[in-house]
Structure formats: C-alpha cells, structure tokens
Amino acid sequence: MSGSGGILAWLARRLAAVLVVLWGTSLVAFSLQIISPGDPAELILRTRYETPAPEKVAQLRQRMGLDRPAIEQYLAWLGRVARLDLGRSYRTGEPVSREIAARLPATLELALAAFALVVGLSVLLGLAAAWRRTRWLDRLLQPVGLGLVSLPSYWLALLLIALFALDLGWLPVAGFGGPATLVLPALTLGLGVAAMQGRVLRVKVLEALGQDYLRFALAKGLGRGRIVLRHLLPNTLVPMITLWGMSLGSLLGGVVVVETIFAWPGLGRLLVEALLNRDLPLVQGVVLLMALLFIGSSLLADLLQRLLDPRLAGEGTHG
Amino acid sequence: MAEHPAGSGRVWAGALLLILLAGAVLAAPWLCGQDPLRMDLGARLQPPGPAHWLGTDQLGRDQLARLLHGGRVSLMAGLAASGAALLLGLAWGVAAGLTGRTGDFILMRAADVGLAFPGLLLALVLVGVWQGGVWTLVVALALTGWAWWARLARGLLREAQGREFVLGGRALGVGPWRLLANYLLPQMWPPLAVAAAMKTGWIIVALSALGYLGLGIQPPAPEWGAMLQQSRLYMSRAPWLMLVPGGAVFLVVLACNLIAEGLRRRWQIREVRWL
C-alpha cells in the first residue's frame, strides 16, 4: 500500500480532480462575460472615448465573435486561454498576460512575506501554549488572538498606518519599493491569519501533550527542549502543512484589500481597477490566475504532507 | 462559576454585544434624530460633542446617524447572505451525501470549483460585474459562501452516517427522510451553529470590504466600509471618522467569534477548519 507507487496513484487522482476544477473555474470566468450587463463591443468603444455608432458596434461585435452562440464563443475562448492568450485589455489594448506579468511579482513578494509571518508567528503562538512556565502568556494570548482574528484587515491597516506611519513616523504610509514599504502591508495581511493558525496549532499541541508518547518521553526524563523538537513538533507541524497551504490561498484573496489600501502595485489592485473600469478580459485573467495559484498551493501542501506523514501514505483521497 | 458549562460566558458576552448592536441599529430613528444624508458644510469635521455624539464627517454629516443607518444595511444584508449561503450549501452537501457515488462526485467537484476562488475574490468579481444594489451584494456573497457550507455539511453527514444508532435506525427500516430529519440532521446542528456564527462575522467583514473598495453599497448611502474609505484623507485631523465605523465592524465580528468560540467549547467541537 505505502511507498512511491501509492503516492503516484494518489497524485494522479488528485491531478485529475484538479483538472476538472480548473475547467470549472474557466466556466465561471467565461460566464462573467455572459452575466455582465451591456455589450462588450459598445463598452470597448466607450472606454476608448469613441462614440458607439451602431455600425461600428456591429463591426466590432463581428470581429470579436460576439454574434456567435455562447458555446462557440466559450470554446474559442478556452482554446486561446489554453495557449496562454488571455486576450487584450479593453482599456489599454495591451495583452492581458503582459499586464498580469508586470503585476505578479509585487503580489508574490507581499504574499510570501505575509506567509513567512503566518508560519513563524503561528508556531510561536502554538508553542507558547506548550510551556507550563509561560501559562500566563497563553492566558494573555487567548483573548489577543480572538481580537486579532476579529479585526477586519482594512481597519487593522488604517490603525497600523495611524500608529506607525502618521504618529511615530517609522514607516511609510503607502507605496512600493524596499523593505520598509513591505512591513505594514505584510503585517496587515498576515496577522489575522497567523492568529487563527496559532489557535489551531495551540489546540493540536494541547491534544498532543495529553497523549501517551509524550507522557512517556517526559517520564523517561528527556529534557523539555528535546521533547519539543523531537516529539511534539513533528507530530503537530506536519498536520499544519495543509492548513498553511490553504492559508497561502486566503492570503492571495486578502491581497485585494491590502494592496488597495497601501497602493501596492500588484494583482489585487489590478483587479479592482479592472472591475471599476469594466475591463472584462483583465478581470477574467486575474481571476483565473488567482484560482490557479490557490489550487496549486493547496495541491503542493497536500503532496508535501503526504510525503512527510507516513500515516497518510496508504490512504485514499480525503475530503 | 463551576456550575456553568465551559464557554457559556463567551456565548453570553457575544450574544449580549450583538443584541446591543442590533438594538441600537434598529432603534436608529429614535436613538438619533438626525438625517444621515443631511449635509452641514458649516459643521465639517466636528469632533465628538453634545451636538454630534460621534462627530461629523467631511461634509458635516452626523456620524452617529450614518453609523446606525449604515449598520442596518450591513447587519441585515450580512445575515441574509449568511443564511442563504448556509441553506444552499447545506442542501447541496446533504444531496451529495445522500446520492450515489456519481452524484456525490459531480456535486462535490462543483463545490470545489466554488472553493477555488480565494477569500472574497468571487464576491468581488460578481459585484463588480453586476453593479447592483444591496440584493446584488447578498446574492454575490451567498454564491461565494455556499461551497464552503456544502463541503462542511457533506463531511458532517458522512460522519453522522457512520454512527451505530444511525445504522441501527436504518436496519429497523426507518425511511430515508425520517432518517435524515430525526437521526442525521440533529447531530449536524452543533457544528453548523458554530460555523454559522463564525461565517456571519466573515460575511459582514466581506460586505464592508467591498464597500471600502468602492464596489459595495454606493455613496451617499451610509455604509461602514465606504465610511472608512472616506476617512482615509482625514486620518490625522479627524481620527474619529476612522475609529468609529471600523470599531463597529470589529465589535460585530468579535461578538460573532465569541459566540462561535463559546459554543465550540461548550459542545467540545474541534476547531472548524479554514476560513
């Protein structure tokens, strides 16, 4: 059952499911075009400040294939997307893939910084629960954690700006470039998620502490540091990997708000601008990419967990 | 304190907070006689005082009135969206759990598609494309949230189906609908209640996040997120404009999370996973 054969079969099944889901997301992205009120051809002419004369509209409709049935339009669109041709922005006329490529690095930088914060802080918070000597810290962190989880990110952002940028003047209010500009956005994005993950890890640590193998290790007289490193961490952190993988996804979702507040030139802001401009191809491109990144990161986390946790090696798909 | 079950203090604190907030919002016309839309350019950016308890904004509008009237929309739309997502997802998950393998596969892959869009991405895009009023927001948020409920409901149903007394009931010849109503659903309510409290908080945050981004309820109608967005320019001069609406969202979400956390402890349910 276990071994690499098991994991390859598992991976093949997961990849098949992922393909089905990706196809589904393409349907959702395409249907935005259908549910969007108004005629895209007219919209394009308007965004280019041309008067939408009927014959011009009809001409453009024909050129874009908008006069054909929806299913034909979808298949043609899907074919182009599969070849990474996401169309051109209504507004700028630039290829969507180029616009996205220009904004992706900033988003990845922000998401990865926040992700590092989430992993580091959640482990610290979880471990604080494990030490008896820091029980007071655990008592204190419980309500703080609940508060952090309840803080809406946009308000947290404004509070951080008010304190660290306006009052103390330590960090810039907004903008992009250099580590100083990264601190507040990453904190805003990561703090709430870190608090939530810390709470989950804390429960896992407390559960593990009650189990026989740890009591036995204690009874054997092993030092606390050794017990934490050799017994507690491997058994509590490996189950966290899936959760972390998923948190990378929720960080990607949170990027929209945080980037707007901090004027961070990433995908999130690109999406909001595209929505406000009714720039459909750009919206579709960003949505597809974000779903792809989300699905990819959860798949990667699942794979990693399977490789690290021998107990899962023989099981079928879960969830 | 020993006679109280664990977590009940949190539940009561959260419920009380929520009742107070909802009561204040519902009693808005009596609590605060001012019109949330009436501008008074002579009284711009007034700090909190006897004339305006929570100060005035950049157009001289009374902030307490705006807060309370905005809260009506936020709370009602949030509850409506949360309830719709729950009902849709529950029906979906139960249907998946009760049909055969093929039906289960199709329904759950569809739910996976709904879950493939991180955070409020789907709601954002739907609202941005549709550009409607409050009901558009409710529908968009429900369409964003249902898949999570579908997966949770299906998992809970599977767990319940494995219990011995359910198997016993089935062996006794209890029909499928009675089995669902009397054996399966009662076991699912506690975790669903915890998740409902948590998710309602999340949806209210999402609602005002959309407002902040300029895609939610449109000005001049008061909305907490939009109020926060406008407070940005006056952060140093008029910090109350930023503290009040944000604090309101925070308190609502805190109340929801207190209820969720208290119920979870009381019924000893494991942490409900992922937002």
Shape descriptor of chain A reads flat
The number of strands of chain B is 0
Number of helices of chain B: 10
N-to-C terminal Cα separation of chain B, in Å? 32 Å
Low-confidence stretches of chain B: none
Share in helix of chain A? over 70%
Helix content of chain B: 55-70%
Poorly predicted tracts of residues of chain A: none
For the largest interface, the chains and their residue counts are:
A-B, 56 and 51 residues
The overall strand count of chain A is: 0
Could you walk me through the main structural features you see in this protein, from its secondary elements to its overall organization?
The complex is a heterodimer of chains A (319) and B (275). By secondary structure, chain A is mainly alpha-helical. Helix content of chain A is 76%, strand content 0%. Chain A is flat, with a radius of gyration of 24 Å. Chain A starts with a helix and ends in an 11-residue tail after the last helix. Chain B is mainly α. Chain B is 70% helix and 0% strand. Chain B has ten helices and no strands. Chain B has helices at 8-26, 28-31, 63-98, 101-115, 121-130, 134-161, 164-171, 176-212, 224-231, 240-266. The radius of gyration of chain B is 22 Å and the shape is elongated. The two termini of chain B are 32 Å apart. At the A-B interface, helix 1, helix 6, helix 7, helix 8 and helix 11 of A face helix 4, helix 5, helix 8, helix 9 and helix 10 of B.
Care to give the gist of this entry?
The complex is a heterodimer of chains A (319) and B (275). Chain A is mainly alpha-helical.
